[in-house]
Amino acid sequence: MAQQSLSAFETSSQDDAAARAAAAQSADTHGFHEHLTPFVGKSVRAFSRLRGGGSSFPGLVVERFDPGFLVRTLRQLPLGVLLVSGTNGKTTTTRMVAQMLSQLGLRVFTNPTGANFVRGVISSLLPKVSLGGRLDADIAVLELDEAYSVRFVRQVQPRYALLLNVMRDQMDRFGEIDTTARLLSHAAAAASGTVILNREDRLVRSLAGYVKKPATTRYFGLASDALRALFPDDESLQEGVPSGLCPQDAARIAPETTDTDSSGSDGTEPEAHQADSDVAALPQADVLLSGIGTGSADYTFDGQTRPAFLHVTGAYNMFNAAAALAAVRAVIDDARRMTDATDARERLSVPQITRLRRFASSDTPALLRAVSSVTPAFGRGENLMVDGSPVELVLVKNPAGFRLALRTPRQKDTRTMIAINDDYADSRDMSWLWDVDFSPLAGDGVAMVSGMRAWDMALRLQYSRIHPEQVRQDVPAALSTFLDDHADAPKTIFCTYTAMLAIRHLLSQRADVPDAGVGA
Amino acid sequence: MTDDMATADNTATADGTAVTGKTTMGRSETERETHSMLSPTAPADRRIDVLSLYPRDMNIYGDTGNITVILRRLELLGYEPVLHLYNQGDAWPDQVDLILGGGGQDSGQRKIQADFASRADILRDLAGKGVPMLLVCGLYQLFGRSFTTLEGDVLPGIGIFDAQTVGGTHRIIGNITEQSTDFGTIIGYENHSGKTTIDDGSATRPLGTVAEGCGNNGEDRSEGARVRNVIGTYCHGPLLPKNPRIADFLIRTAVINRYGSFTPTSTPEQKKELEQLDLYARRASAVAQNRPR
Prior knowledge:
The complex is a heterodimer of chains A (520) and B (293).
Chain A: H1 13-28, H2 37-50, H3 57-65, H4 69-74, E1 81-85, H5 90-103, E2 108-110, H6 118-125, E3 139-143, H7 146-153, E4 160-163, H8 171-174, H9 177-190, E5 194-198, H10 202-205, E6 216-222, H11 225-230, H12 234-238, H13 247-250, H14 270-280, E7 287-292, E8 296-301, E9 304-309, H15 315-340, H16 344-347, H17 350-360, H18 364-373, E10 380-386, E11 389-395, H19 399-407, E12 415-419, E13 448-450, H20 454-463, E14 470-472, H21 475-485, E15 491-495, H22 497-508
Parallel strand pairs in A: 1-3, 1-4, 2-3, 4-5, 5-6, 6-7, 11-15, 12-13, 12-15, 13-14
Antiparallel strand pairs in A: 7-8, 8-9, 10-11
Helix pairs in contact in A: 2-3, 3-6, 5-15, 5-18, 7-9, 15-17
Chain B: H1 17-24, H2 29-38, E1 47-53, H3 64-76, E2 80-86, E3 98-101, H4 106-118, H5 120-128, E4 133-136, H6 138-142, E5 146-148, E6 154-156, E7 163-166, E8 172-180, E9 184-192, E10 195-198, E11 208-212, E12 222-223, E13 225-227, E14 230-233, E15 235-236, H7 239-242, H8 244-259, H9 268-289
Parallel strand pairs in B: 1-2, 1-3, 3-4, 4-14, 5-7
Antiparallel strand pairs in B: 5-6, 7-10, 8-9, 8-11, 9-15, 11-12, 13-14
C-alpha cells in the first residue's frame, strides 16, 4: 500500500493542463445519462448511508458513471475553487478560510475533514447539488492531501492555491521531503488566479517559480525573528543542533563545532545579523503574524497592526489564521474586480452580484471579526470542559507540529497525557518521536503515556530525562485514570490521529464535545 | 548495561568489563567516590569523542535518536561524551572514538559527495583501526563499493563494506525484525529503495537475517552489514533506542580502543536509570515485533 507508485505523480504541469483539457471536454460532451448523475449519486448516497457504509463510495460510483461530474459542478462557481494543501495545518486553515468567507457573506462549499481526496470531494458534493445539477455556492474551499492535490488539478483548475508548509511528515507514505515539495508544485502551476505561499518556508517559497501567468503570487509570513524561532522550517531544523537533542545533550557538542549556537562567545551575535539580512531578502508579505498572546494575536496588513481575539488556541493556529487572512483578502480583491466589471450582469445572477458586492466591501473590522469567529477543527487546539476542568486536545502527527505544540505556553501545573498509536493514519514508524525535543515537558512532567506505542513514547521521554508517572497502552483505561487522578488540574492531551478519534469519543460520554467537522 | 553484550572484534573477550561493572553495583555514594579517587582513570581520562557524520544533509529523520542514546548511555556509565557535528567543509577533529551516520535524500547525498570522497582515507583508516561506527541507510550504501542509480550512473562508495547497491523502482517501507548472531533480535523500521548485495566470501558479513521484512535486497534475507566494528543497516526506528546491545557494543569498543579497558562508574541512580531504559526498550520492541508492516 505504501509502495504505491509515485511515478503516477511525476508528471509535468503541461501534462496536468492537457489532462484538464480532456476532463473539460468530457464534461462538455453531454451524454444522455448526465442529467441522471445527481439522482444516481444521491440515491447511492442514501443507500450507503442506510447501510452505514463508507463515505467515499457514492463518489466512486459517480466517478465511473459520469467522469465529467466534478468539473461540470465546480466550474459553475463564480469564484472558483480555493485549494489548501501542505503538511501541517491544512484542516484548520481550510476551516478558517471557509468560515471567514461565509461570515463575510459568501455561499461556500467545503469538504469535511477526512474527505481530502478526489472521491471524497465528489461524495461531499452530492448532497449539495440540486437534481438539476446546480451547486448553489460562490466558491469551493477544498483541503487536499499533497498527493491528491496532484490528481485533483489534473481534472479541475483551481483559481487559488494556498500552500502552507513542507515538513517531514508521512515519509513512510511519500518517501522523501523533496517529493512532497514536488507534489505541491503541481497545484502552484495549475492555479489560474492567485497562489498564496508561506514566505517563511524555503521549499514553499520556491514554489513561486512554478506559478504561471496570469496567476499572481502573494505571501503570508512572520514579522519577527522571535516568532520565526517558534516556526522553524524543515531546512532550519536540519541546521545546527539536531532538532531532537535536549539541552543536556546539546551541551555535549564540542565548542569548536561551528554554526551550532546563535550567541557568539565574544558577546556579539553574528547569527542575528545574518538572520536579519535573510529577512530583508524575503518577499513582501500581504499578511503578517506580528504577535502572539493568550487568546489573541496581532496581524499586520495594509501597513497597520491590529489585535484579533481567537477561539482557536496554539501558536500554529495563529499562524494558520494569517494564511487564511491572506487567502480571504485575495478572494475579496477578485470579487471586487468581478462585480466592477462591465459584463458582471451577463456572468452573474442578481442575487450573486448582491452577495459578491457585499462581500467585496468587507472592511478591516469585518475581517478581524470573521477571524475571531472561527472555531477550532477536530483536535486542532480544542478546549473542552470535562468534569469542571479544562482539557486541551492537541493532535500531533510530525516532529515540527509536536515541537510547536510543546512550546505553546500553558498554564502552570498543567497535567500532561500523551497517546501514540501507529495505525496507517498515525504513521507506522516511530522515528519521528526522536526528532522532537521534549524538554519543555520536564518542568511539570508527564502524568500518563498511552496508545499502542506507549512504550516507544515512554522510552523516548526517559532518554529526555523525563520519567513518565504512568504508562498504560490501553487508551480508555489510561484516559479515565488520567482524568480521575487529576480531576481539578488543567490538562493537555497530545495524541496521534486515531488516538484522538478514540479520546474524543470517550470524552463525549463525559462532556459536551462539539462537532468539529470530522467527515469520516 | 544489557545483560549479555556482544564483544568487539579486535579486543575479543578479555577485558574484565563485566566484573568491573558488577563490583560497582550496590556501592554507597561514599564508597563510589573513594573508588573513583583511587581509580587509575581520573575524570580527564573519561572523555569519549563521538562524531556525527553530515548531520545537516544525512539525517533523514529520527536518526538523531542514535546520537541521543550514545550520549546518554555514555553519561550513565560515567563517561564524558563530546559530540562533534561534522558537516562538509568542517575541520576533522583530532580525536574520534565513535562515528554515527544517517540516511539522506538523493539531494543530500549529492551535497556531501565531494567532501565524503576527500574523507575516504581517514574513514578507511579509522575503520581499519577498529573504531566503532554505525551507518544507517544512505551512508550505509555509500560505505559500500558503489551505488548504481536507476539511470545507470555509478556513484563510487568508499569501499569499507564489500557490498554494492543498485537503485530500485519502489520504496521498501515497514517494520522489520532480524536475528543477529552478534546482537540477538534487532528491531527496526526500514525505508529505502536501494538494494544492497554483500560480496560472497568477503570479510563483510550481514548484520542479521531477516525474520519479518525485506532487508538488504529482498532476496537473500540478509540485512545490513558488519566488517570489524563498522555496522551498516537499513534500520531506522531509530535503531539504537530499541536495540541497546548495539549501543553498548559501540560504546564499549570505543572506550577500550581509547583507554584499554572499560570501567563503568555508574552510581546506583545511574544503574537504575539504565535498567529503566532497557525495560522500556524491551517492552517497545515486544510491541513493535507484533505490529503490521
